[in-house]
Amino acid sequence: MLKYPSLLASLLMLMLWSQNSFAFGFKIAPIEKSFVKYGNAKSRGLNPKKFNVVVWNILKAKKKDFRKEFASFRPHPDIFMLQEVNIVPDFFNAFRYYPQHEIHFGSSFYRKKRGKEIHSGTAISSRFNPEDSGMIRTRELEPIVKTPKVVTWMKIPFEGVNKSLLLVNIHGLNMTKNRDFFKQMDSCARLIAKHDGPVIFAGDFNTSDMEKYNKMNQVALDLNLVPVAFLNDKRKKSKFSRLVIDHIFVRGMHVTNALVHNELKSSDHKAMSISAKLY
User: Fold this and answer.
1) CATH code: domain of residue 127
2) Fewer Cβ in 10 A, N or C end of the chain?
3) Residue 7's pLDDT band (cuts 50, 70, 90)
4) What range defines the domain where residue 174 resides?
5) What is the CA radius of gyration of the chain?
C-alpha cells in the first residue's frame, strides 16, 4: 500500500502536464528580445511617506474573474510585482483599470498559437517612471519542459529624496536540483548588493523544501532584508513540504500594513500587498 498517495498523485500530474507541454512547443527567445516595455508612466517619483506594492502569481490570467479581481486593488496601487504573466489580451485588458502604469516584462519562454508568439514570464508595473530596469534569466532549465525562470527588476526614484527603490521580482526555479535554485538566489543577491538604498525582494520563490527555504533566508540575512509577516496568512504552501512559497522581504523601510488577499479566487496563489514608508 502506498504511504504517500498525495505525493504520487502530484508526481503523476507533473508527468502528464510535462508530456502535454511538448505539444505546446515551448521556445526561448534570445535574451536581447526578451525584455519589453509597455506603456509610459507620467509620474516621476514615489512618495517616501507612503507607497504600496502588490505581489501576485496570477496563473497566466487564465481563470474566470481575473480581470474583475485585478481591478479590486484600485484606486491607485503604485507597483505590481507579478509572476506567471502571459502576454495575452486578458492581461492587458486587466491593466485598463490602471492606465497610468508602465509595464516591464521579462520573457521566460514562448509558444506559438495561431501564428502568434505567446510569451510567459514575470513583470513589474509602476505608475512612476523608473530610473532603470532589466531581467535575469536562469541558464538552468526546469526538467522535461526545458524552460528557464526569469527575475525582473526595476529602480524607481523617490520624490524629494536622493534615494531610489530597487524592486526584485522572482519566480524561483521549482523542480530543478537545489543547487540551481541557489545559483538563481545568488544572482539576485549580487544585484541587490550593488544597490545602496531601500529594497523589496518578492515573488513566488518556490521554496518547497528546507534547503531552499534556508538559502532564501540566508541571502536575506546577509543583505539586511527583513521578511514581511502577515496576520491573515493564507499564502500558498508547497504540496510536498507545506512550506510557504510566496514571500516579501524589505530593507530601508517601515511596513505600515501587510495583507494577504485571501478572498481572491482567480489564481492558485493569494496576492500579497504592503504599504510602507521610508525610515
Assistant:
1) 3.60.10.10
2) N
3) low
4) 25-278
5) 18
